[in-house]
Amino acid sequence: MTTLISQLINLFAAVILMLSFAMLAQRRILSLIHLFALQGLAVVGATTVVAYVTDQHHLYYSAALTLALKVFLIPWLLHRLIDRLNVRWDIETLINIPSTMLIGIVLVVFAFNLALPISQLSAAITRGTLGIALASVLLSFMMMIIRSKAVPQVIGFLAMENGLFFAATSATHGMPMVVELGIALDVLVGVFILGVFMFQIREQFDSLDIRHLENLKED
Amino acid sequence: MSALVLVFAIPLAGALVLALIGHRPQARNVNVIFSLGTLLAAALLTAQIIASGPLFALERQFFIDPLNVFLVTLTAFVGFTTSVFSRPYMRIEEDHGRMTPGRMRLYFSMYQLFSFTMLLALTTNNMGILWVAMEAATLTTVMLVSIYRTPASLEAAWKYFILCGVGIAQALFGTILLYMAAQRVIGEGANALLWTNLDAAKSQLDPAIMALAFVFLFIGYGTKVGLVPLHNWLPDAHAEGPTPISAVLSGLLLNVALYAVIRCKVLTDGALGNHFASQLMIGFGLLSVVAAAFFLSRQKDVKRMFSYSSIEHMGLMTFAFGIGGPIANFAGLLHMTVHSLVKSAIFFAVGHAAQKAGTQLMENIRGLIKVSPTVGWGLMLGTLAILGMPPFGIFASEFLILTSAMRQVPWATPLLLLGLGIAFAAIFSRVQPMVFGQTSAKPLAHSPALLPVFTHLGLGLMLGFYIPPYLDAWYRQAARIIGG
Amino acid sequence: MSLSSIFSQFLAIVAALLLAPLLMGWVNQWRAWFGNRSGAGLLQPYRMLHKLFHKESVVAESASPLFRFAPYVIFGCMLLASAIVPTLSTDLPLAPAADAIALVGLFALARIFISLAAMDIGTAFGTLGARREMLIGFLAEPALLTVLFTASLIGQSTSLSTIVETLAHKQFAIHPSLAFAGIAFTFVSFAENARVPVDNPATHLELTMIHEALILEYSGRHLALIEWAAALKLFAYSCIGLALFFPWGIAEAQAPLAMLFALPALVFKLATGGFLLALIETLSAKMRIFRVPEFLATAFLLAVIGMLTHILLGA
Fold this sequence. Notes:
Chain A has helices at residues 2-25, 29-54, 57-85, 97-119, 129-146, 150-172, 177-205. Chain A is mainly α and 219 residues long. Chain B is globular, with a radius of gyration of 21 Å.
């Protein structure tokens, strides 16, 4: 039974990693939002399973919080945002997608190696998923670097938060509740601020292309 | 304990009140009153500490020890003087049409909220809450940096948000690892992240986890300290935001971030028992000093130049804490204090000068001494102080840092001297014509209220001669906490 | 080699030969239905094969013996491939002849012959098709190999029979790595069998066609063999996919009677698979040929991640 459950957690971990890659390869903003919501769902699934196994009630709460926030509220906000900004079109990437993927694989190997000595110390049920969590954090980080539009950068930022949340679940069975609440608040406020920001950016530049934001240079 | 609660309850209440009435003309006075209230609460708290020693509040979730007591006071003090400075400054900005009543409301409420997040970060005992407060500080300042809504300020704020957001996410990963290490020793629950508990159990924390945790925490909070190569956001945010915000960013926020790094370093040193964290800090500190000095010499914008100077000084402090030991730590803490005071004074003076000249380009600011002797002398004295001229306090701290560097990491001393030398030459050669150069501008009709500038400089000067016994004792105790 | 194993091998080959055109017909029928057409019926591929076998085979004057010879090689390769994939039972005497790696080699051999034959005549279309086919093959093979390696790592053997036996009859376990491998394998199958996102089997549009361009010069029994081989290839790929990712129902070596159950199970699984294939084909648009490398690179990447997850996660 426990092996099956730990395999289930591994499955969720694998799905999270796969969705990170899918986001990296995705060209359309709308699909990107869907993938982000799916990743949130996978994180919720993993958290619920861990909560069930370890019998930690506060993990159910944080799973519910994540469900409300990352699967429903934030994707809904993003939907409204792209509707209002009218930016459903294709995304340009700064590096072509196959090279991105190759760099992504290197990142995954790097993350696994970095986390290997530590995951040995992790709780038995979630061993090994710490590496995946770190890998998805790094992949989202890369997504923020290679995307030139504002909305995908924000989604990358949020996906990074997903990875961090999953890291907290897999390494420590979740952070203390008060910290979780603080993090959730910060993320929500951050999304609001960024949303307001995007309107301001578009007002100033008539575009959401971050490459307009390259005038401040060292000189 | 009531004073400790007041210290962050007052700015929080201020943020709420000013969110409601911030658009009215008298809001700037309300802002000053709330900042004064915070300062008084901090003074009360300090008096309590002097009377009865370190204390805890709210079930040990908040604490004051020698390492953060002077930072709390400093934050409240600079927060107050900056609110005094922004009273006339922001009114002139409003007259110039760069601010509207709506933006003023945002400005004042975010200013109070920013004070709140910094004080929360300083006083919390919980490493998780520390992270939350640091992230909240980023969010509030992002709003403040972009308040003019110009293309350049939006760019600066976006860069600031994304870079610091990414950085702070690394710090969250580090915090998670820290909790993981703590769980194995202290057990589950929020108390496992209390710094005092971690400090008590630090020798049992798993070294492998702690080493990795420190790397992530250092990258994360180091981004906010502005360490090279993660410094990109800092000059932009300083140059494009309102000048009072540049003053508090440089004077306070960077300190708070460095404070977070120091707290983490103490735990890591205890767990690892080697000099891993110290070497990391020495390396990045040194890199920041040298690189910032080179960047600094190429700047044309006065606020950008002084923000690079902030990077240089933060690098110097990181370096000092990296060396460790009673003398270098003492010097680092002193440098933190004096740099806050002097740098914010410089930004006040620069703010008036740039507002008068209508530009931040140094080649267009000339002859300040004729336009307004107080602004001119304020900028000149501030520059001399920041460059480490005796008898200002920075001379004392830099002298101590250099002597301990010579003793413990002799190879780094020439690099430090090189960085300081370049910075000296670059800043002095640019500020000198700004103050004494020829100008055709008319003198200011009335001399601007520069009380904050001269108060800060006076304190900076005093700390060069005389450190009050309580401060001295705190520095010594804090230096012992930080250790080697 | 027992009698039952010879029988099961024989049955597997017969099933492959007979079911392959039926699968093709089933997919085409569903495609027609999805497109609101009535369709040609399930048995259309048999009728076509029958017709082609009775037609005279016309060969270009410039054709070398290779051109006549190639259809037999291709058909043989595909038949052998179908024979060593565990469809009904894992007890296959031919299986030791070729493991998973050699299986990929068999597909590659067929590809080389069809490309050589296409270039043999010297027409522009044949050369164009051969180039595209080689491009796809060169990108798809590493992905396919990696998928099979992932499965081999789980089964601790490169023999397909052993792998399937492990997956189907050992204790039930969730393998996240197989989820990655499964998606990668689906991508590769679409490319290798000239299905919609990569190639459209239903058109002769010269600018986009790949498979049809290769066989443009063939007619009569040659064409029949090639079409049958194509159907066998689709069948073989479907069976590899089913055997690796949905292995339930395949009979074990010691249980010949289980084959009674294995046949309906296979037919059911193939029917579902064919339905899904038609559905995906109807829903997706054919991509530009320049996008195909990206498509296959993604497949390769997924396969590599699958293998990495297996090695690093131990699952």
